[in-house]
Amino acid sequence: MLQVKNLMVFFENALALNELTLTVEKGEIIGLIGSNSAGKTTFMNSISGLIIEKQLRENRRRGERITIYGEIIFQDTDITLMKPAKRVKMGIVLARERHPIFPESDVLENLKIASYLKKRKEWKKTLADIYNIFPVLYDLRNRKAGFLSGGEQQMLAIGMALIVQPDLLLLDEPLLGLSPHFQSVLVEAIVNLRKEFGITIILSEQFARPVLPIIDRGYIIENGMLTLTDTGEALMNNPEIKTAYFGI
Amino acid sequence: MFLSTIVLGFINSIILALVALGFNLTFGISGVANFAYGGLYVFAGLTAWIFINIVKLPYIVSILLSIAATSLFGALIYRFILQRVRGIELSEVIATFGIGLAVLELFRYLGFYGFEYTLPVMFEGSINLFVVTVSIQRVMIVIIGIALAGGIWFFTHHTKIGLAFRGIAQDEYTALTLGIDSDFIATLSVAFGSTIAAISAVAIFPLGTISIEQGYVVLINALAVSIVGGLGSTGGLIIAAFIIGYLQTFTSAYIDTQWVMFVPPLIILAVLALKPSGLFGKQKELEERV
User: Fold this and answer.
1) What fold does the segment set B2-289 form as a domain?
2) Alpha-carbon gap: A101 to the closest alpha carbon of chain B (Å)
3) Cβ atoms < 10 Å from Cβ of B256
4) What is the ipTM of this complex?
5) Rounded to an integer, what distance in angstroms lies between the CA atom of residue A137 and that of residue A153?
């Protein structure tokens, strides 16, 4: 479904992603595990196309120079330099880190804004599905999104991504800053997404323990390089991973 | 005297609201600064005048052409100038204010000032409202103002493009991840704001002559109404227009006409000092709480 070949991203002279190569098959849940500034967000932005938008803006104001090498191929199309809106239409949707929502709109309106590309009928149907997965959102539908807790905002952010009916869902640190309770609720919901809608998912995390049990394969990323790749189970039992990413 | 002031104040308030609606749609609701607003307003009035008096087109065609030309002008301002400084708020303000100045002063340089520059009214005649005689044109302004305010509220709450306007104002990158092309939406936002500037220009200019100074007055009024009402809130804008409109009318009726021009800047100062998010501001309320 997705092939990334020798992807390199520079911010000025700093190397953010280095010769990154990976493949994702349809229906997989892939974990991208790495510490702060390892390149997780840059990777997500490269796949979703936000990096192209950032590059354009920096160029316009003669700011930071962003350079991209390599290839990203999604369903046999080269999307390396494609604009984000086009990629969304192809089915790649990203939920950015730190629960990105529209804080001044209420929950229902957030989901309405997210339905920009969808017909009204489709939206209503998907909305019912989202309320099924996250019943909390239904109860809070008239609450201003900025007043929700972090966990509720994260559910809303994922809900907004689902409104677009993605084939490939990118979740950038979905568990960041959440309580253990919300972490387990979300992990369960992520598993359900694949079961019910057949969505392929790539999720990035620093804290590997809650996500390793649900991923099919995991990639460890350090300083922009993939250093290790294995099945979720094998990574669970790897003593080096335990010491580095389990917080023990 | 008192009753007539109430009626005239009502009309004056709607005029203020009408002028501020377009400014608020662009700057308040979608977060794109358009300080060329006054320039666009006068541009609409003078292009309508040119179409009527020089090209000799029928009134209604001239009006429509001028509204279309102003909207296109707004879109071009975004595409060629604003887009380059997008996201740097101060630069957005300076760039658009500069364009507004250039447009206004270019018209002055070309000699477009004087008493012959007037637009015809839509309908002749006048009617009696309670104690004062009011021209039909003023009644039309009230109708257009109320219709536009309702229309904009509906547009920004129940249409995809209107909702996208509010999306890009709140979080542009999130909007991008949902497939909203933010440059396209921002272009539309400036264009629609210009459309409203043009509609209010062709409705309001027939009340007097088309003067370059109106461009500056309109910008200050629009700014005052938007700041007092709270950027982005259509309901707040209407209430703010009534507060400022009645303050101006009562000042002119009971104190002196020359003090009217002090009302908008003074009220901007007062609101910024006491409640910077505006009386009904939703937009920045959350940030102030933190």
Assistant:
1) ABC transporter involved in vitamin B12 uptake, BtuC (1.10.3470)
2) 7
3) 9
4) 0.90
5) 9
